[in-house]
């Protein structure tokens, strides 16, 4: 059996309109399950390392993306409170795991990463999520650990269609979610509207103590398509979002998370070939303060207000050339990324802090220009495939101090890969070699010494296999990498965080298995592990020291029953203790805080489908474990709320939710 396409890439794909109610090849209803199948893909080939999320909570509908992605082996997360969670793949995130929406890079604005890219993404607005593992692709960017891509594609309808989805959820800690998705159109075009409201109160940890974490979020999108010819398709999109969230790891909360995005897409066919073009604009408007979502200590100089803003705009063009067994991708892109802010502090009231900040013009902090070109190819035969590509970027950084240009730097990172895949009856084997280079991102070059950093250079070997038959699937992935000039941050002096280069080694892998017995009993599981080591004596580090911010061994197990119209399962998730750490050192996301304990949790999930309706229920962390992830931030003391400091921000304790879904 041949599993064709881009290896080391996992595709998680559902239809934004109707996949929840479609049936699989075996006529089994897929109840809220994120999976890959030819039925619900659009112009995307099956991946040889296909991933299925073991849980029934669809990634494309969950506002907690970081938590949902833990169901994909290799992912871990960083908790900060009610928002701003970080996603990590093989313990790497931020600039090493870029996040793209419709082929454009999205970034947050906060200098302390209060708002990460996923803060502004409304998953239900996209038709698929794709995960690229390692530097095994060059079409989208320089990928050190990989990439996460949210895609819409341009929707084509074959007949007049009017449909929609309505979702409503209520859960513990006053968690409420409502979203709607409407579609109308025909073979000449379509109009789609989506919207959602998500909110929750402060959750309680496993000890029953409040965690400063309440949030609210509103999202909306309009997508229009024009498909006058079989070979021509246009799309126009507008995305809007607003929100606020309490943070348990710092002295301020996020009281404004506004995103405005516009996009234009073109797909033009020329016989067997195709031209794809996109233009995009993203504006991030973020506000943090220390008085809106928590009581202020009310001293004469205690009120603070900070308003960073980010604008990203650009264009991308790609030609897809098909010559029988050979497919080629040739493309180029340009984008500019401008960061600015306005701040007030030391005022005696909230009004004074707000008015003072808003009376100021934005002060420019940085402008980053990216110019890129790439070529990628695939040669496919019945029993094997060869894949390769090369990418060249030109990155220009202008750094501003007090609004004045202070430093400029130009760098030219190069990335390339080659991979061989072997297709047997029920087995796919692969081996790949990749090299990716990246420059320091905004959070790195803004630190002491940041503008003197060398390019980070990752050389990586990927090996793996996937074994699949009618009732089972087993996949195994291994990687080993040597990263020269790895960018690390020294947090030992918190008032002057230093950025520097070192050399490191990383290796690890993921194992996933799933089997369906008697078309009823389902058993599945997965495990992942990453090992990291410093290889250089520099800045207080010694050769052989542990690489900081490495997540421990993770394990998950699922057992349950699944039928055409209902399912019930139990899920077990565990992390080992992490004994390997380097306290005071870290990356753009955070620093090592020391040893972390092992933990395990159990959850129960069930669902029932009747005609066009679905009902889902869940009990999560049923054993009410007090736990935190190794890479989560430290819990700050909030005296006005009688919240003491904790080593790390704890995860929610025992919780329940019920969800109703309707398709019409």
From TrEMBL:
GO biological process, one term: siderophore transmembrane transport
Gene3D superfamilies referenced in this protein's UniProt entry, alphabetically: TonB-dependent receptor, beta-barrel domain, TonB-dependent receptor, plug domain
Membrane topology: Multi-pass membrane protein
Chain ranges of the TonB-dependent receptor-like beta-barrel domain: 212-622
Broad class of where this protein is predominantly found: membrane
Domain TonB-dependent receptor plug: 47-146
One annotated Gene Ontology cellular component of this protein: cell outer membrane
Keyword Transport: yes
Subcellular location per the Swiss-Prot or TrEMBL entry: Cell outer membrane
UniProt entry keywords in alphabetical sequence: Cell outer membrane, Membrane, TonB box, Transmembrane, Transmembrane beta strand, Transport
Keyword Heme attributed: no
Domain of life of the source: Bacteria
A Pfam family this chain is assigned to: TonB_dep_Rec_b-barrel
InterPro entries per record: Beta-barrel_TonB, Beta-barrel_TonB_sf, Plug_dom, Plug_dom_sf, TonB-dep_rcpt-like
UniProt GO MF annotations: siderophore uptake transmembrane transporter activity
Family membership: Belongs to the TonB-dependent receptor family.
Protein name: Nitrilase/cyanide hydratase and apolipoprotein N-acyltransferase
Taxonomic source organism: Campylobacter hyointestinalis subsp. hyointestinalis
Phylogenetic lineage: Bacteria, Pseudomonadati, Campylobacterota, Epsilonproteobacteria, Campylobacterales
